[in-house]
Specification:
5-stranded antiparallel β-sheet, single chain, alpha+beta
């Protein structure tokens, strides 16, 4: 399920690694809610990358290869 309101998006993902993501387009902050209960937060993530993550066939693989280690974590 995806919700978008005033530049903020929240969506659940079909992934063994990631339960859901939340993104604020204004601040370019991405929060990732992991299946193990951990929460990761990244800054300066472009909206185009978040859209690709949400649409990825394997969100966990996309996260590991395209986000983790490439964007500053908070």
């Amino acid at each position: 399920m995806e919700r978008t309101l005033q530049g903020k998006m929240e969506t659940t993902l079909n992934s063994k690694l990631i339960d859901a993501i939340a993104y604020d387009e204004k601040t370019q902050r991405l929060r990732i809610f992991m299946s193990n209960g951990q929460r990761r937060e990244y800054q300066d993530v472009p909206a185009s990358v978040v859209r690709k993550l949400a649409a990825a066939r394997s969100p966990g693989h996309f996260y590991s290869n395209e986000i983790r280690g490439k964007y500053r974590s908070l």
